[in-house]
Amino acid sequence: MNLEEFLSQSIPVIDITYGKILLSIFVLVFGYLAVTLLVHYVRRSMDKADMSELLIEFTGRITKLLLLIVVLVAAVGALGFDVGSGLVSIAVVFGFVIGFAFQDILGNLAAGFMIALTKPFKAGEFVEAAGKTGNIKNVGISNTVLLTGDNKKVIIPNSEVWGSSITNYTTMDTRRIDLTIGIGYDDNIGKAMEVISNIVKNHEKVLKEPSPTIATNELGGSSVNLIVRPWVKTSDYWPVKRELLKQIKERFEKEEIELPYPQTDIHLFKEN
């Protein structure tokens, strides 16, 4: 039966008895309880399998929705209605309408499912996604919540997160600090590198392996630029970076090593 034939049919008169009503209510109540218990069992099984919370939430909701639809159809059938007639046609039309009206929502759900499968980040990690940077507060089935450094709450649709490049700054145990230190052209490069090397190697939180890199990188417009690249534990990244910058500045002042900054010289000429 196609959709046109189904819509042209007259509605049959159904003899609904009290017995059918009670049966339908029983199907609804028993079905709801059974679905709740089954979904709870599915969630617990997935949790024991060490699956992500997002995947558990997504699977639980979809499973519950589909099973409740089955229960509802069964309850309507218990009243005496022919639920099979035209059901496929209605499902096709319903699916088309829902898909068109909620395409953004469905896109976010699909993206959330992919995030749950690939696990690019988890709650508490510091990431950059969809052009936003912050700590992951929550990963839901439709959106991801970030907390920025100044404590702003940013809610990003999962479709934007999944459709962008994702940088996870805290997923690895160690991280490299990248510093560029400029010295004057009249300063001794070897002396400057020795001062920096002593500071880096004597810092208790700088890792011995991989060994730090200290090298000349560029002859800039107003300075000779040295690169300083020590490795630290990820949790120590920001404190160590700040401490190294402070110590290098203080030691350079004592050793009279210049830290130049860009400047422009203006020469005025007077005719005749």
Automatic annotation (TrEMBL):
The chain crosses the membrane at residues 20-42, 62-81, 87-117. InterPro entries: LSM_dom_sf, MS_channel_C, MscS_archaea/bacteria_type, MscS_beta-dom_sf, MscS_channel_2nd, MscS_channel_C_sf, MscS_channel_TM-2. The keyword Mitochondrion does not apply. It is a multi-pass membrane protein. Pfam families: MS_channel_2nd, MS_channel_3rd. Keywords: Cell membrane, Membrane, Transmembrane, Transmembrane helix. This is Small-conductance mechanosensitive channel, MscC family. The lineage of its organism: Archaea, Methanobacteriati, Methanobacteriota, Methanonatronarchaeia, Methanonatronarchaeales.
